[in-house]
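Milestone 3.1: sequence recovery, worked example.
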């Protein structure tokens, strides 16, 4: 947004400067109609665009007012306005003019409008103006002769005359902008994007006198992007030292989306800039300013303080930042969320580093990041110790975009449905900032203890497919753990386990699994489940019928547990199943062989097979 505002300001300021220079170049007592015609002709020649001025009022004692000023877009854009102003008022100092100086006490713009467009090619809708200016610099002297003659005919001295211009210097000391609107549209990416600045108001007092008395600056506007609307208001003062070519800006107040900032910015010769800005915020107010539904389920009434120091010297930018969030908070259910956050951030030489410690969800989260914006590389690490996973995953989900209409991800499946104490260590890295979900790589280890999975949709669907009702209920465990890796948008594990007790035999079910899911919602996961004898006896006839088995007594493991295998694949939304039972078949073969060896009769074997299978 900062770049957009700068571009808009430069474009409007450039056009305004052209108008000011033209006014300074004409004779003092030129008729208003002639001045209007000259302005239209010269601004049109300078920009290469159609220029319109509705009315021009010219008072030699007070200044000039232009009404309904517009500069149109080039051919190909239709009849659209590139820049529009309801009125442009230039109030000047007559005694200064008589002494050869054009001192504009105030430039007033009423309802200015400017739309910046970036095309698919990457060119901007003002590129032709810039290209025209560059081309004019290369025009041979002979080719420019007609233009010079035309200027001379309008009252300006030709290059061959020794007469000096009547106006020697041009100075603008104050600026006022009321109800401005600036829009930006970008069609160069895969998806069109854009934002706008509405109701832009700006007032800058007499800058010339700021060496003696600080000049007041006031600005307010609304930044709009989609459903997001952020009101911004600034009050500041500027003190200059013309001899030292330096200025100091004191930010008295800057409010935006529930934040309040103060600070100081110093600018010196050579473009050196340094300063500090302190910001405080009630996080609840910040969240309330965002579109409804952006942060569902978050009741986060924290107090945040941010202190930033920056220095720009010799094309080198250094930023040091410290963030603190304090107080203990609870959401609507009474569980703890973030209690304290401390983070240190530094940016120097194009490298961003961050270290943060968060006391949250009853535990501690450590986070670190190192990103090289020049080489476009990054690595990050996170360690979570003894934190409530239900709160951690639930709050993390508000920062992750919801799945599109094509389906949901595994993360969508488990959020708000997993409980327990989380311990995790992981690290990730990437060699590009593009399409991070598909280009990030890394992995780690995660363990959840003393928890449960609350009636997952995937488990319900599998339970229906297998005819096992117990899979549709909450799955309680002592530990759910596994190593994981991520690459190419795929998250894989080969040692997932869920069990109760050291050997897994203290609960109703133990599980071992391997497979993957992707950020695009694909899934391929193999699960080996074992049910204890008590639960196995209640699995029911549906499961046996599915496998074409009448008697499951031969299918049990030697420890008395019943094995059930399943493969879930395709997508999270449209799951498919492979319900082959290789372990169960092996058990039947082993137990049947044992029975045959005990009986030793071929007829007995035939009867056994008929008794097992339908």
């Amino acid at each position: 947004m900062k770049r957009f505002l700068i571009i808009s300001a430069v474009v409007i300021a450039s056009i305004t400067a052209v108008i000011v220079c033209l006014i300074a170049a004409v004779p003092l007592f030129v008729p208003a109609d002639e001045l209007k015609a000259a302005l239209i002709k010269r601004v049109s020649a300078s920009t290469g665009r159609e220029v319109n001025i509705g009315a021009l009022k010219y008072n030699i004692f007070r200044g000039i007012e232009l009404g309904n000023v517009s500069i149109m877009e080039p051919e190909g854009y239709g009849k659209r306005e590139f820049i529009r102003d309801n009125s442009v008022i230039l109030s000047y100092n007559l005694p200064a003019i008589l002494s050869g100086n054009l001192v504009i006490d105030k430039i007033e713009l009423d309802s200015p409008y400017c739309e910046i467009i970036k095309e698919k090619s990457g060119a901007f809708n003002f590129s032709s103006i810039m290209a025209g200016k560059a081309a004019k610099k290369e025009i041979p002297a002979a080719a420019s002769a007609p233009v010079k003659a035309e200027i001379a005919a309008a009252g300006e001295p030709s290059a061959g005359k020794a007469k000096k211009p009547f106006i020697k210097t041009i100075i603008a000391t104050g600026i006022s902008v009321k109800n401005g609107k600036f829009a930006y549209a970008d069609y160069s990416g895969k998806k069109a994007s854009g934002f706008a600045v509405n109701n832009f108001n700006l007032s800058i007092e007499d800058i010339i006198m700021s060496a003696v008395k600080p000049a007041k600056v006031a600005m307010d506007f609304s930044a709009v992007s989609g459903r997001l609307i952020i009101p911004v208001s600034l009050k500041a003062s500027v003190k200059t030292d013309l001899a030292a070519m330096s200025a100091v800006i004191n930010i008295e107040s800057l409010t935006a989306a529930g934040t309040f900032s103060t600070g100081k910015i110093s600018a010196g010769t050579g473009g050196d800039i340094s300063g500090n800005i302190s910001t405080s915020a009630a996080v609840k107010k910040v969240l309330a300013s965002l579109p409804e539904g952006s942060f569902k389920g978050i009741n986060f009434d924290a107090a945040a303080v941010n202190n930033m120091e920056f220095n720009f010297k010799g094309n080198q930018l250094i930023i040091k930042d410290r963030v603190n969030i304090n107080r203990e908070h609870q959401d609507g259910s009474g569980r703890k969320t973030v209690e304290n956050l401390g983070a240190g951030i530094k940016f120097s030489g194009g490298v961003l580093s961050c270290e943060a410690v968060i006391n949250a969800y009853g535990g501690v989260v450590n986070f670190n990041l190192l990103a090289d914006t020049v080489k476009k590389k990054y690595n990050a690490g996170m360690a979570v110790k003894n934190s409530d996973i239900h709160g951690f995953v639930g709050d993390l989900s508000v920062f992750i975009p919801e799945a599109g209409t094509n389906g949901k991800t595994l993360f969508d499946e488990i959020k708000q449905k997993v409980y327990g104490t989380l311990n995790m260590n992981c690290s990730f890295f990437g060699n590009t900032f593009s399409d991070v979900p598909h280009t990030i790589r890394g992995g780690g280890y995660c363990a959840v203890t003393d928890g449960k999975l609350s009636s997952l949709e995937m488990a319900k669907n599998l339970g229906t497919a297998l005819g096992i009702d117990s899979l549709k209920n909450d799955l309680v465990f002592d530990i759910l753990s596994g190593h994981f890796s991520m690459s190419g948008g795929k998250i894989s594990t080969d040692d997932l386990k869920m069990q109760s007790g050291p050997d897994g035999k203290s609960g109703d079910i133990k599980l071992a699994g391997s497979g993957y899911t992707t950020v695009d919602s694909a899934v391929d996961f193999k699960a080996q489940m074992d049910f204890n004898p008590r639960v196995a006896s209640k699995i029911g006839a549906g499961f046996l019928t599915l496998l074409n088995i009448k008697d499951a007594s031969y299918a049990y493991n030697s420890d008395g547990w019943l094995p059930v295998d399943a493969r879930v694949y395709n997508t999270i939304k449209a799951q498919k199943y492979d319900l082959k039972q290789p372990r169960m078949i092996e058990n039947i073969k082993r137990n049947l062989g044992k029975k045959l060896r005990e009986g030793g009769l071929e007829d007995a074997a035939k009867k056994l097979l008929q008794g097992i299978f339908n």
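Residues 134-162, 401-407 have pLDDT under 50 and may be disordered. DSSP finds 14 helices and 27 strands in the chain.
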